[in-house]
Amino acid sequence: MRSMTESNLAVRPGDHPVHGTWLSVDVVALTDDPEPKIVLIERAGAPHKGETTLPGGLLAAWDGETVEQCAQRIMRDKAGTELTGGVAVVDVISDPDRDERGHTVSIVVVARVPAEATGAVPVTQIPEAMPFGHTTIARSAIRRLEERLLVDPDTTRAMLGDETTLAQVRALLSVCGPTTAGAARKRLDRSPLYRRTDKLRKPAPTGRPGHVYRFT
């Protein structure tokens, strides 16, 4: 007989829980470029084979896997890309009817990936009615990101890193809605999480150098 830990957390290829509650990690990954996009994947297996979803998968808690390690593995194995920084938990979804295979609690994280990541689409093109409630999860995560950016240290550092610029802040805020340079600057300057330095960074070959802000 399998242990309680194994019966609730372990999985063999092709299996899914018949009882208990499972933990999964769903990754809302935004590309690190002037017009950040969201990474979506095409499911390789049943259920919903061939349909578009967020990158996600079971947390290998039986192997001592952390949420961040799980997100890194998911993005590497399912999206073919690496995270450029850490992750931040922005939501936990416990709807027992979300997954027809069994009760799966989703830990939703936000993260950044390289600009060239495959499967990235504008957030305005997130499909309606993605399986497992992923449409609602993605849109809710983006709203939470807008609320927490430059306010919550974990979310801010995961999405902007140890150093950032006004252009990068404005680009990320634009994912949540139209943002002027003035509004982004005011929000950045008022945040206690970053301190402006004398260091300059040129965002693009044709762009103007901007001051670097360092995480405090």
From TrEMBL:
Q: Which Pfam family, any one of them, does this sequence belong to?
A: NUDIX
Q: Per its UniProt record, what InterPro entries does this chain match?
A: NUDIX_hydrolase-like_dom_sf, NUDIX_hydrolase_dom
Q: Which family does it belong to?
A: Belongs to the Nudix hydrolase family.
Q: Which molecular-function annotations from GO does this UniProt entry contain?
A: hydrolase activity
Alphabetic keyword roster: Hydrolase
Any keyword Transmembrane?
no
Q: Which residues form the Nudix hydrolase domain?
A: 23-116
Q: What is this protein called?
A: NUDIX hydrolase
